[in-house]
Amino acid sequence: MQIEPVAQEAPERAIVREFDLSGRTAVITGAASGIGRETARLLAEAGARTLVSDVNEGGLAETVRLIGKAGRPAITQVADVSRRAEIEALADLALAKTGRLDIWLNVAGIIVHRPLLEAREDEVDRLLAINLKGVYWGCVAAGRAMKETGGSIVNLSSSGGETAVPGLSLYSMSKAAVNMLTRTVAKELGPFGIRANAIAPGWVDTPMGLHSFRDESGAIDPGKRELGLQQRAQASPLGITGTTRDIALAALYLASDASRFMTGQILRPNGGVSMP
C-alpha cells in the first residue's frame, strides 16, 4: 500500500498563522489616540474583534472610524480606568458581545511633569489612579475573564520606569510599579494559561510625548518640537525616533501565538536609547 505524503504547510503561511488574531477578542484601553489607537487598528487588521475604550468619546469615535476603514467593526465603550467597576464592565461587555476575551491591553495613562518639591496631592492621586490602579484592575478583570480559556495581557510601561528623569518622578514611579505588577501577574495567572508582558517604549511622537514642546500658553512650539525630535533621534544608535506603529507591532507580537513562550517580560522598543 502506498502512503500518501502529508502536505506541508508553506512557511509563509505558518508565519501568518502565528500572528493571526482571527476569531479572538481584544480589549484596548486608552484607545482614543496615540499608541492605544494605533494598537487597536493593527490588532483589528490582524483579525481581532476589538473593544476600544477611553474617557475621550470623540477620540474613540475617530478610532472606530479608522478601524472600520479596514472593514473591521469595533465595539466602543467610554470608561474611566480609575474606576474599578467601569473596568470590570469592559470585560463583561466583551464576553456578552463576543462570547470570549483573549487579549487585554492596558494602554490608558497620563503624564505629570513637575519637580518633586512642587508635587501636588491631587496630581499624585489622579496619576496613580490611572497609571497604576487602572492597570492593576485591568489585570484583575482580564484574569477573571480569561481564567478558563487563557489569554494575553499586555501592559504599557515606559523607559521612564527604568531611567530617572528629573521632573517625572511620579510618572516613572508608576511605570516601575507596572513592571513589577506585570511579573507578579505572570506568576499568578500563568497556571491558567494567561501570559502577562509589558511594553516599555522609548520616546514616541504622540500627544502625550509633546508635553515638553509646549509654550507658556500650552500650545506646541514648532521650534521646540523640531529641536526636540532631533535631540531624541541623536540619542538613539539608530538615529531615529519611534512611531506608534513600532509600539503597536510589539503589542501584536505579545498578543499573538508568536509569543507563546513569553511571559513576565518587559519588551523595550526604544531605538537603543536605554539598554537595561
UniProtKB/TrEMBL annotation:
PROSITE patterns: ADH_SHORT. Its EC number is 1.1.1.100. GO terms for molecular function: 3-oxoacyl-[acyl-carrier-protein] reductase (NADPH) activity. SUPFAM superfamilies: NAD(P)-binding Rossmann-fold domains. The keyword Nuclease does not apply. Residues 24-206 form the Ketoreductase domain. Keywords: Oxidoreductase. Transmembrane segments: none annotated. It is an enzyme of class 1 (oxidoreductase). This is 3-oxoacyl-[acyl-carrier protein] reductase. The lineage of its organism: Bacteria, Pseudomonadati, Pseudomonadota, Alphaproteobacteria, Sphingomonadales.
